[in-house]
Amino acid sequence: MDRQSATAVQHECCAVLAGTGLGLRSTHIDRVLSERPPVPWFEILADNHTAPGGLIPRQLAAVRADYPITLHCVGMSLGGTEPLDIAYLRSMKRLIQTYEPVQVSDHLCFSSHAGHQYHDLLPLPYTEEALRHVADRIQRVQDFLGVRILVENVSSYLTYRHSTLGEAEFLAALSETADCDLLFDVNNAYVNEINHGAPAGDFLHHLPLERIREIHLAGYEDKGDYLIDAHNNRVADPVWALFADVARQLPDVPVLIEWDNDVPALEILLDEAARAERIRAADSAAVA
Amino acid sequence: MKLAETESVFTAGLEPRCSVAQRARALRQVRENGRIPAELALTIYRNNISGALIKALTAAFPACRRILGEACFTSIAHRFIEHSPSKHADLNRYGAAFGEFLDGWTANRAPLSDYRYLGDLARLEWYCHTAYTAADDPPFDFKALAAAGRDASETLRFRLSHSLCLLQSDYPVMAIRETNLSAGDAGEVRADKLPEYLVVSRPTLQPRVERVDTVTFQLLTACRDGRTLGHITNTDSPPANTLPETLAELIQRQWITGFTMDRLFTTREPADA
Question: How many CB pairs below 8 Å do chains A and B form together?
């Protein structure tokens, strides 16, 4: 897809997913369904919604009836070297066909190897060989699912000696080669800055901005010398500061508040979303 | 180093019982940066992986966890994870073998001899866990059953609800589960009648556990095992005169949700050929 087409698609998605959405968690579903809070859209953790029957698909259908949704996956293992997990992809395709999400995303990582599932986002070496491999895999996933996917930068706790590319450089080349889109997680970029010293502020300079179709914000856990991407806290001040810069460059790209562990009351998430909107509004006013 | 080799070396180093050589190889491919020593980085990933699996087990086995206490449950869960790594991308499917693991765990440890029911309790919890997400069942097709006719009994097999599981236990695990899921103190549980024959199903949206009599249990077991209606009739359990009534009740309870019939192909020479 050329730059002009990518920009057009980006605008289309931004129009449907206007504003700051929330990651929908099971503890909030009853309230969401009974109170219909003013959330512009919800992101669904796809892997938690593969149940063929029972309450979970009914709730998801009810949420979908009132809100646009996106699907966020963790099990495609886009960087894996085993054959693609077709059963997993089938279940994702079923979700896509049933709920018609505005967009579908997964991570730049591997999560399975030698028949074992790790249920974690394991880091890749950023090499030319890995780039070709992951790009080919993403193309096959997109062909199978029948949708373009967004690939998210991950937080990590190690880098490999034999990496020859930077993470942002790798993602930029990957999005062009695989013709996929990108999900920029500001918290992950900041966690990696602290953990590995790669300046998060430089990250966006390497990425094709027209391919970024979603921004994630989350809270980390401070371990003193390093940060854990725990998704168990409010967004930290340095991440808000980075976000302000990102929002200036991508004023219309949808933003998501992610909170997966020690999930608080819905009001806290709405408060975080309101803060993101205030920052975006302030930036828009400054530009105007 | 190629990508596949990188992943093999890294994941080998993540195994809880990896060798010194495997760990050293995994550490060698990590770029040291001063903030997170390579050994610590591996530990963080190892903890993330086991943390996700323990969270899944905790969600699936709440009564077992309450009985064992968090520390003991977590310790056993760690051993289970070493014994049974996750093989499925869907984390909700992790833990099917936990009951069997607990059988071995309690059989081989004298201090746990009073907890031999834990294997059955874990199976009961697992059945409830899977019933919650099982596929919905279509309504029973009474017209098709009527159309099948009386002669169909030799080839007719009843189909059970997707959510239905059967458990026979020598322990009062239904009461043990209920007691340990309630907010109050979990004390001693009296065994009224053993063995206990239990049916787990999801007739609405929440799983339900029900005690049944031996005859009903055997009938459901025969259906689950694919026995034909003719075979069930011949066993005379339940007695042939009460079988229609019993089957009607199981259909009404949404335990029997359909039926299949074999297509028969004769291989005999036609009489008038």
Answer: 134
